[in-house]
Amino acid sequence: MRKCYLLMMPHMVLLDFAGPWQALHYANRQSARIEIIPVGSDPSVELFDGLSLNGVQTLPLEIPDNAIVMVIGTHGDGEQLKHPACRASIEWLQTHVRASHTLVTVCAGALAAAEAGLLKNKRCTTHHSLCEHLALIEPTAQVCDDRIFVQDGHCYTSAGITAGLDLALHLIGEWWDYTVALHVAREMVVYLRRSGDDPQLSPWLCWRNHLQPKIHRVQDHICQHPEQRMNLAHIAQSVHMSVRHLTRVFKEVTSISLHDYQQHIRLNHARRLLAETPHSIERVAELSGYGSARSLRRAWSSVHIESMKSLRN
Q1: What is the domain partition of the chain in residue ranges?
Q2: Which of 96, 239, 296, 299: disulfide with 290, CB 3.0–4.6 Å?
Q3: Which regions in the chain score pLDDT beneath 70?
């Protein structure tokens, strides 16, 4: 049985810990064999939101060669790393984590790993608000500031919060079986698993920071049916607005035109199909609402989402 040590430090975000922890427990219900061990410098850890978790085991003096060390980050801009319990945890990482171990960090856990010298010359990431700080701590690291998670050898770093769950599902599939990861995702009712190549600020989440319910309904419809050509009259009627009023309000509250919004969603859908399915580019164009591969390439180029080299011939 493989051991996984979840390093817990004060002021961590509950979901940074709970997402991966729950995913690993569900994996054990399938066919994975992993011993999940919460560890820390204190038997009780106070979370960022005022709650506390008990039953934390003492930092082990020895770690088996094939063990996983998952570092759960603290909330904030890195100042929490000066806390005595955090310093003790960083010293433990520095002393005990070796090349024979697998290092996983969630959110600001990358800052603690960097402080311990474990990210030297590594490709890595963290929450987008902390990437500059991570680069200051470890100047030799190649910090990827727009990735859900990054793998460099036996080192895995994630952007945190829900990205920690994305990484956990990826690791379950990689270490055991992707059918196990699929079962876990279904059990946890995860709508869409993201890959490490996905940007932290996904088009599916952008332009949604407004309080206009009718516009949210329009966006929901576009996201749920990316393959459909947009019928403005039908969409406007469904939210009891005129076409002119809908297009004006949409641009007003989202800062993007309705046409451009659908373009981003359809192209993101096409990128997923290209990356995750064996479909030809012609079939992908059809499933994304484009009439031909030529139209898809033209649209792709016009918004500069990715280089044309990434499209399969």
Answers
A1: 2-187, 213-310
A2: 296
A3: 191-205, 209, 303-313
According to CATH, the superfamily of the domain at 213-310 is Homeodomain-like (1.10.10.60)
SS3 string, the chain, reads: CEEEEEECCCCECHHHHHHHHHHHHHHHHCCCCEEEEEEECCCCEECCCCCEECCCEECCCCCCCCCEEEEECECCCCHHHHCHHHHHHHHHHHHHCCCCCEEEEECCHHHHHHHCCCCCCCEECCCCCCHHHHHHHCCCCEECCCCCEEEECCEEEECCCHHHHHHHHHHHHHHCCHHHHHHHHHHCCCCCCCCCCCCCCCCCCCCCCCCCHHHHHHHHHHHHCCCCCCCHHHHHHHCCCCHHHHHHHHHHHHCCCHHHHHHHHHHHHHHHHHHHCCCCHHHHHHHCCCCCHHHHHHHHHHHCCCCHHHCCC
Per-residue pLDDT tens digits for 64-101: 999 999 999 898 777 889 999 999 999 999 999 999 99
CATH fold, domain 2-187, is Rossmann fold (3.40.50)
pTM over 0.85: no
